[in-house]
Structure formats: C-alpha cells, structure tokens
Design a protein that fits this description.
homodimer; alpha/beta; Peroxisomal Thiolase, Chain A, domain 1; 9-stranded mixed beta sheet
C-alpha cells in the first residue's frame, strides 16, 4: 500500500448560488484544486453528492463533471452516503491511490440545494434516514436530531443553553473565513432566543442548507514533491457504519460508527486524540457536536457540552473545532461538506487559514457523518515536513 | 496489485416485486451471494444504484443494506453512474481488493422501479442524460436513443427491421433463464408490428424497467481456493467516459467510451475480441447492441446489424450475446443491470447456465453502459482452471 498525499485544494464560497449550476460549482472547485496542484490532468474523478437527482434533476455526475472540466474520458463516478457523501468519495479516491490503481485522483464534493427541481429540500434530506421506518412516518431529519438532543438533555441533565458555545464558536470562526456563508458572530443570548425548528432544536442549533463545492487532488506521497511544496499527508482514512434508523441502535446517544472510525484512524496514524491540533467535526446540529466529541475520545459520555463551556474548543483551546466556521457558519452543502472539512484542515496545516490560523498546526482530523451517525469517515492529515 | 476473483454470485428474479422493498431485494441477492461463497461476513459493501432517491425515496443505501444483511459496521457506500451504476460499483470493489485495501468485498446492484414515491419513471431515467441541455428540453432517455437509431439507419442505409434479430435472440435466450422477466420467444413479425414508443424505437426495441438485485463476492485470487471450487477470475476491469450530452460528441454513432474501455480491457487481459466465448452487452435498446458490437471490435462501423442477420450472436454463433436474455428479456432494473450481466457471465463460465449453456465457455465479457454511452465499464472474466 502506498502513502497518499493531498497536493491541491479548491473550494467555492458556500451560499445561495442562484446564477450557477451544479456543474459550474463543481467545475470551479475542481479547476481550483488542479491549479493549486499545478496540474491539468488526472486519472480519475470521484464525486461526492447526495441530492443531485432529487433536487437538481441530474444524475451521472461523474462523466458530466469530468467532461465539463476538460477531462472527458477518465474514470468518473458519483459516490453517495447521505451527508457523508463527500468523505465517502474521498475514501474511494484514497483506496484507488493507496492501492496503486490510480495515480492522480480528483475528489470533489458538490451540492446544489437552491433551484429545487424535484422533491422539496426537507423531504429530500429525510432520505438520509430510513425511508420505510422514519421518513415515511413523517420524521424529518431535523426531527431525528431533535429526538437525540431531547434524550441527551434528559439523560445527562443538561439544558438547551449548554449547547450555545458550539454555535457561538462556529460563528466566531466563520467571520474569518472568506468562503463561509455566515460571516457574523452570534451571542449566547441570540442562541437562547432563536426561532424554534423542531423542539428542542432551534435555528441557531442548525447548520444552513446551501450550494457549494470543494475538491482535493491526491497522489502517491512519493510523487508529491513534483507538484507542491505544501504537501499534506493522509495519515489515516477509516470508516464505519451503523444502523440507519435511530430506533435500531442499542444506545442512540453513542455514535458507534464515529467511535469505530475514529479508533481505527488513531490506530492507523499511531496517535492519541490529544496529539491533534484541530478537529473539523460534523456540526450539522449542536447535538452532533457533543456526541462526536464524546465518540472520538475528547470527552466522557455526557461531558461534550462541558468541553465547550470550558473554552476548550475555541481556536485557543485544547482541541479547536469548526476552525473555519464548521457546518453551522461555513454552511452545509450536504454532499460537499466532507470535502470542505478536509480542505479546511489542509488550509490550517499549510498555514493558510488567515485570521483563524492555529499556530504551528501540524496534525488535524476531519470527521464526516452521514444520517444520524450511520456512515462515518474519519481522516487524519499531517503537514509534510 | 492483486489478482481478483469472484467467489459468490446471487440474484433475484427480475420483475415487478410489489411485495418487496428495495432493501429486501438487495438483501436477497447479497445473502445468496454470501451463501454461494460459503461466507457470513465481508469487509465492505459497494452498492450500485441509480434511482433509489428519485423513485424509492431512500438514499444512504450502503449503511442501510449492510445493516439489513447483518453486516452493520462494515464500509458501505452507494456508487452511481446512471445505467452503469452496477458495474461502477463492481469497479470500486475491484479497486479495493486489487489494491489490497479490502479482502472480502460484496458488490450489489439494486433497483426498485415499481412503487413510485417521487419523480415518475420516465422523468427519473432522463437524469441519465444531461439535465440542463437534454432533459430540460423534454428529451427523454428513449428519445435520445431514437435520435441515435434514426441517424444510424440514415447513415448506413439499414431499415428498422434489420434490428429484429437482436430482440428475437434476447427473447429466445430469456426462455431458459428462470430469473428473466420475459420468458417467451418473439418473432420478427411481432417486432415489426410492435407499438411505437419514440419513432423509430418500438416496444420490442426496448428493454423493460423492473425491480431486481444481483450481487457478487470478490476476494484476492490467492485466497479464492478457501471458499469455492467455482472460482471465476477478473482478467480485466476497465472504464472510460464520454460527454453525457449526445450533441457534445464529434460522432454520435461511435461509442468512444465503449471503444476505449473495451480496448483497455483487451490489453489488460492480453486477448483479442475473437478469443471471447460470450459477450453480455448493454442492450437497453436495439440500437445500443449494434453500436456496442461495433465499438467493442466485433463488427465494422455500420455492420453490427449484419452480425445479427448472419446468426453470429446466438448461443451457437461466433459471439453469443445476451445469453440469459439480455436487458431486453431478462429485464433492466437500471442500477442492478451491470451486476446481472456479470452474474450471468459467471454462470456460463461455471457451466451453470442450464439450457442456455455455451459448451466449454471459459472466457466472457460484460459491458455496462451509462446514459447513451457516457460511462462504460468493461469486465473480462475467465474460468479458473
């Protein structure tokens, strides 16, 4: 098996791109990533996307985007794993390069959620859950997360306001990220007063749906020096799955797939959680932040919110999270999110994170979650010396 | 790179399964394939599917099906490339095993097209084409193929009836396949009189939409002997892409991606087309049969229909095609088709094709086509000695 390195990154601003089509968004991110790597070609393109068929009336994104960026002919497919589609595509790209089947691989995550040409967005997002036993009964995706949050509050005796620091931190960091959708800070008081979405989840617990695309270029580490002096190695790529339906899990408050994929990733990389300089986690809702921190070894069960209250998750804290705004403030173009997370870790490790730069960051982790924890991919990245 | 072998196959009958859900169909095929391999576990599951979101109101098939078959926790994603989704998933499975990242991999293709819970089926199938420039203008998928067929007839001076032997052959072979949707023969006269769908394509030029699932189990060839004495080696796995929109191609009657992927496959396997004992091609419409035979080296341009007229494509012919009924008679559950093709080649190479058995078959090819030729995966299989 070959060691794999990221030699190029690209992203579009996250937001409502009414004047850009899905292929244009993907094309911008892919072209930027290729340019960043100083390349004009690649051997394969894997596209992470969840809802192009349902919302944008387009499947077959692999061939479509490959052709659009001038790479007609190369191997190209779409990979889907709900909100984890981006990192699932990255995982396929990693497998292809690590295994020696491809040399230069582009991985792109893209989602176009405005311009709805099919199922409405809430109904489309419910397809991340169990269609027969959750969505068919009217359980939207935010409602699933609301059940989790209510149970967490009950089980651990915490109140809704205890989750405020997660959103406050994300918004504070979004200010410094030119690609973020929300570039303004929020207060804990604003969080307390935000409009209810699905009790107890309010507007400021929730990440916004959006349009966006992000991409990386991978190659074998042994070849990386030919292309860049900003190489970032993939130290670990690990995944695990769980039941899609919440009611099928023994303990809904334990993200088993996040735990398993993080554990495998730490083993692969030969590190402990405390060795990490930052952690881009999947803050689709504030409850997922607490559960991810706990499953990934940063807090005991029920203690995720305490970590935030003690300031440990800020840029100056022990384990900075959502350093470029996270899903909450950067935005959550569903199938693209996994690639945005990785691009942001690469920015930090290269020292290109601008006002949000974590001094001397050399080791970072990204964790992309599909559904309410049914598919999780954890990636550990390290600045090449 | 490791040599890869198919050690298990499974399939459901193709048809209208009103009483079975998508996960049940997939579960049946996966369980059958695992049982055939004498296995109860696997390291990963890659699911080929095109329309689960649009039609069956379910994304996130990887985790969903892995859990349903008792393999909660393993790596699992959906792979999509329109009608080539099945073989695209196979290609990912091949990459994972050949590269050494996974040992035992299940690849499943599944499509549930009855019970429409979203976009109607014709609109959904149009997502295989270019959404902005074909589907948005009302060009359905059958209409795209009708344009191709009309142009072929004009360019090469053949008439509609010249395509009859393709359908007659497929239906004849469907009779002997217990998993086929249409198990009755048709005559050339019936072909001539069939109801028009999109001029010049009539009902008997067209494969039927359907429900179904098929699966294979892969492992490194070096380990195959532990599991089966019916091993079938993957001698080549090759892919290529083209523009999604027909109007973007220099020569719409030349399936460039089929040509490229077949050429690469022949090179990998070190064989010539005439060495093959059978060829499971993508006869979604009769025009695609002619174009596939020409692009894959079995006939000169414009001569594909002659091959059929001369009886070369029957079970007794020089290059038998659609030996278990093809898309036309076995049925075309879109995202499952690529796996059905491979399962059927394996049946032939194992000597398990019943009344349709090609005596002494040792080398077969499957070619799965997405859209009107935008994604093509060609797989060459050989009976292990």
């Amino acid at each position: 098996m070959r060691d794999v390195t990221i030699i190029g990154i690209g992203q579009t601003p996250v937001g409502e791109h009414w004047h850009k089509s899905l292929r244009q968004l993907a094309g911008e991110a892919v072209s930027a990533a290729l340019q960043d790597a100083g390349l004009e070609r690649a051997d394969a393109l894997y596209v992470g996307n969840m809802l192009s068929g349902e919302i944008a009336a387009q499947e077959h994104l692999g061939a479509l985007i490959a052709d659009f960026v001038g790479l007609r002919g190369i191997e190209a497919y779409k990979v889907e794993a709900a909100c984890c589609s981006g990192a699932a595509a990255l995982r396929i790209g990693y497998i292809a390069v690590a295994g020696g089947l491809q040399d230069i691989v582009i991985v792109c995550g893209v989602e176009k959620m405005t311009d709805v040409l099919g199922r409405d967005t809430t109904a489309a997002l419910a397809l991340a859950g169990d269609g027969d036993y959750e969505a068919a009964l009217g359980l939207s995706f935010v409602a699933i997360n609301a059940l989790l949050m209510r149970r967490y509050m009950h089980e651990y005796g915490v109140c809704h306001q205890d989750f405020a620091p997660f959103s406050v931190n994300a918004h504070r960091n979004g200010v410094g990220n030119p690609y973020a959708m929300f570039r303004w800070p929020i207060t804990a008081q604003a969080f307390a007063q935000a409009r209810m979405i699905a009790d107890p989840i309010n507007l400021l617990d929730s990440s916004p749906i959006a349009d966006g695309a992000a991409a990386v270029v991978l190659c074998p580490t042994a070849q990386a020096g030919e292309f860049t002096n900003h190489a970032v190695r993939i130290r670990a790529s690990a995944t695990a799955t769980d039941s899609v339906a919440l009611h099928d899990r023994r303990d809904p408050l334990f993200l088993s797939a996040a735990y398993q994929s993080a554990r495998k990733a730490y083993q692969q990389a030969g590190i402990r959680p405390q060795d990490l300089d930052l952690f881009e986690l999947h803050d689709a809702f504030t409850i997922m932040v607490a559960l991810s921190l706990e499953a990934s070894g940063f807090a005991e069960r029920g203690q995720g919110v305490r970590l935030a209250q003690e300031g440990e998750i800020t840029l100056e804290g022990r384990i900075p999270i959502c350093t470029m705004g996270g899903l909450k403030a950067r935005g959550h173009p569903v199938g693209a999110t996994g690639l945005y997370q990785v691009v942001e870790v690469v920015q930090q490790l290269r020292g290109q994170a601008g006002p949000n730069q974590i001094e001397g960051a050399s080791l970072g982790m990204a964790q992309n979650i599909g559904g309410s924890g049914a598919t999780v991919v954890t990636t550990i990245l390290e600045r090449a010396e």
